[in-house]
Amino acid sequence: MQHPLEFITFANRKRIFIALLVWTLGLFAVFRVLDQPLAPNGIVSFELAGTLERVTTILSSWSTQAKLYAAFGLGLDYLFMPSYAFTIALGVFLAMGRHKGWFAMLGAWIGWGSLAAALFDATENFALWHLLLNELIPVWPQLAFWCASFKFGLIAIGLIYALVGGILPRRRPEPVEGSR
């Protein structure tokens, strides 16, 4: 299996990764500001509520302004999704290039998983929009919970792979028989 970003030339990978990383961290900083009025744990508590009871508790604790922040954040998240997905996938690709064998093969799968995380995020946001619009039916918090859980899991796997692959020493080429 090929990594989804193999079309990016070797010469451009690091430069694109750094630009994406800076952009993604900038968007993440904006989300930190938007999360301030969203007690108890920002938008994540809403994403992982899982039940109508928890959702209604959260929504009733938010002011009108907090709900507007949440709505704006959900909209902005559609810009953030491809940003973090491609940043993580490219980080995985860079780490993958440092190694051979099963580790590199695993990186191709994890690269696709990083992009799948954004699809789970989009589906989760769809459910959260319905909840913010007071369409309080049990399927929305459950859908948001499971999509958020898969999203966070795939993001964590991608980040761990990229960090471990970047920290581990490069794998040396196998010695050729008879050359010592």
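Above is the first protein from milestone M3; the second protein from the same milestone is given next.
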Amino acid sequence: MNNGSRFWIGCGALLGALAVACGAFAAHGLDGYFREKYAGLMFDKKISTADGPQVVEQIPLDRKFLADFETGARYQMYHALALIGLGLSATPQNRKWIRVAGICLLLGIAGFSGGLYAYTLGNLRWVGMSIVPLGGMISIAGWILFAIAAWRRQDVPS
């Protein structure tokens, strides 16, 4: 196993541990914090219509933010496992693709999961509307690059 492989496996393992901690935080205390901080506030779920945006449902903000925080932790774990997979699949032939895929996955975790954490803990709407979707797009790019890296491996029969 080369240094690049160990790096991605180590990053994935540490980010996996952090995902478990964030999930535990959400399950054992964050709900009370959100309930107190966002008491009485509602989130308007809207759809676009020909007449403009229409509210179709109102959700208590504390429930929405708890679900969003948990989504961040869940997706962080998925991407932590992907980083471990990157490290395990690295070969000299695909090292460049592995590196770029790993960087995208790390940036995706920071943007998507980190953005959801910041959005929910600080009620930072601009983060939820800009950073989170950008992190998601970067994550998608990371997965595509991971696929290319897999196809670039020459020791695996096709």
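Note on the second protein: The mean pLDDT is 93.
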